[in-house]
Amino acid sequence: MQKIAKKFVEVMKDCSHVAKNGTNDFHRYKYATAADVLEKVNASLTKHGLASVVATNLLGSKEVTTAKGNVEQLVTVEVSVTLIDAESGESLTLKGLGSGQDPSDKAVAKAQTMAIKYCYLNSLAIATNDDPEADQHTDEVMQPKPKPAQVKNNPSNALICHDCGSNISQKVADY
To answer: How far is CA 132 from the centre of its chain?
Structure first.
């Protein structure tokens, strides 16, 4: 495993970062596309003489009903990505999980794409400059709120916004 391990490290160096070129317009966020990840990984694998063979195992499939009442197929797969060193014949197998949901026939393809993408992102420690565990809403809720300012020479002792200086209600201050 020594030769393939050395090559794998070189692939990790080549693929240390993938830019977020995709945009989800509905939820308004950017993401690294599967195409960008696979393009970068494939270029490095072939450069270092490593072949990639993917095998998919269907873990589950069920019908789900969306909030709008539509029935869709939810599929979960496990992929095994075997890397084979063209020189030594040594191999290394990576695994990944993915789920995909679709109203027609694309649920399996979506699940496979997700599984392969995250298999490479995680196994090669590829950075996309985000933290999937980060939850801005939770962080904002958990952060202590500053108390509204009480202004001197304020006969009514009104609550004042720290940011703009406007009078605010007790409800706004509590929020």
So the answer is: 5
Q: Name residue 160's amino acid.
A: I
Secondary structure of the chain in the HEC alphabet? CHHHHHHHHHHHHHCCECCCCEEECCCCEEECCHHHHHHHHHHHHHHCCEEEEEEEEEEEEEEEECCCCCEEEEEEEEEEEEEEECCCCCEEEEEEEEEEEECCCCHHHHHHHHHHHHHHHHHCCCECCCCCCCCHHHHHHHCCCCCCEECCCCCCCCEECCCCCCEECHHHHHC
| CA distance linking residue 41 with residue 29, whole number of Å | 23
pLDDT per residue as tens digits for the range 138-155: 566 556 555 555 545 555
